[in-house]
Specification:
CATH class of the largest domain: Alpha Beta
Helix content: 10-25%
CATH architecture of the largest domain: Alpha-Beta Complex
Low-confidence stretches: 371-376
Number of strands: 28
Radius of gyration: 22 Å
CATH topology of the largest domain: Spore Coat Polysaccharide Biosynthesis Protein SpsA, Chain A
Mean pLDDT: 90
Shape: elongated
């Protein structure tokens, strides 16, 4: 069950009209592609995608699930939106409520275990390993965790465990954390156990109907067998403009960039039929990702260019992200800027954002709202 209804308010203009999991990422993908591809590579064949906020673009992207081999007669991918029925149903009021409202869907498949994941994180994980540990521990729930810097631990839900990784305490954003094992929001449950807790939680008016705040603490109170699964790979919650920019820049790191080309763990997406990139005479492209359909005549440094981007002569693009269809006019300088889809930057524009500031997100509407942009320093 993939939770993909995130509004992503802290991403600003990037999520004005689309859900956070549908935000473009990494030159050719959308954020949700990483979780969907994890499911494919982990041989998960039945997937429910729970949407809510501005789902049109996300629904169109997922379609029948063909890029992820989910277009199956039995199982496959099902997009599950909130609905109103005679016996209730409304907007999802929390992560646990989203699963509760789709109990009927899960019961149709009669699973022994249910994996609950989020569609707005960047990472590569084999969920089969998580399941194997869950079975070996005869666990009621297993929660994937990652070590975070101690100085940042108070920003996360922190799990306190024994040496065997059995969870005995869960602290939501503790002031004085006892460990640095942070919940990744990835859970596997024995279904019959989870179902009972979901039904009980739904009847509590005081509950926020959330896994971290309600379901997990209730299970711990009843001394159920909860274990942590320790993940040691790359994981990023792209919840802010700064973290979104950082995650894209991380792709330029040699080790993580090679992970995208791992033939044994591919990242799948809807692809296009744009022609190969064209690098013009005198153009300079260094330490960057440049996708198909791009025409580059200027200088690109440490940047990510999506499909069908045009960068004219005399331009200098540095540490920036240009979404699909962006056109950059001649003699333009962009530094630490995120340019949204189909935006046209006028000739002679100069926008430089210092490292002390959050990268700037611009689209055509934002550009129009700027006073005198062309030829001036912003």
């Amino acid at each position: 069950m993939l939770l993909a209804g995130g509004e992503g308010k802290r991403l600003g203009a990037l999520t004005n009209n689309i859900a956070k999991p549908a935000v473009p990422f990494g030159g050719k993908y959308r954020i949700i592609d990483f979780t969907l591809s994890n499911c494919t590579n982990s041989n998960i064949q039945t997937l429910g995608v729970l949407t809510q906020y501005s789902p049109l673009e996300l629904n169109r992207h997922i379609g029948n699930g063909k890029p992820w081999d989910m277009n199956r007669g039995t199982g496959g991918v099902s997009v599950l939106s909130p609905y109103t029925a005679k016996n209730g149903g409304d907007w999802y009021s929390g992560t646990a409520d989203a699963i509760y409202q789709n109990i009927h869907f899960i019961n149709q498949h009669n699973p022994e275990y249910v994996l609950v994941i989020s569609g707005d994180h960047i990472y590569q994980m084999d969920y089969q390993r998580l399941l194997e540990q869950h079975k070996a521990n005869n666990a009621d729930a297993t929660i994937s965790v990652i070590e975070v810097p101690w100085e940042e631990a108070s920003r996360f839900g922190i799990l306190n465990t024994t040496e065997s990784l059995r969870i005995y305490e869960f602290d939501e954003k503790p002031l004085n954390p006892k460990s640095n094992l942070a919940s990744m929001g990835i859970y596997i449950f024995t279904w019959e156990t989870l179902k009972a807790y979901l039904i009980k939680d739904a009847q509590k008016k005081s509950s926020s109907h959330d896994f971290g705040k309600d379901i997990i603490p209730a299970m711990l109170d009843n001394d159920l067998r909860l274990y942590a699964y320790q993940f040691d790979g790359y994981w990023k919650d792209v919840g802010t403009i700064q973290s979104y920019w950082e995650a894209n820049m991380d792709l330029l790191d040699e080790d993580w960039g090679q992970a995208l080309n791992n033939k044994n763990w591919k990242i799948y997406t809807n692809d296009s039929n744009f022609p190969p990139q064209f690098i013009g005479e005198g153009a300079v492209v260094h330490h960057s990702l440049v996708n198909s359909g791009c025409f580059v005549y200027g200088t690109i440094e440490s940047s990510v260019l999506f499909k069908n981007v045009v960068v004219e002569r005399g331009c200098v693009i540095n540490q920036s992200i240009l979404h699909q269809g962006v056109k950059i006019g001649k003699n333009t300088t962009l530094e630490r800027v995120i340019v949204m889809e189909n935006t046209e930057i006028p000739e002679g524009t100069s926008i430089r954002i210092s490292e002390k500031e959050e990268p700037l997100v611009i689209n055509q509407e934002i550009l129009s709202g700027m006073l005198t942009l062309s030829g001036e320093e912003i």
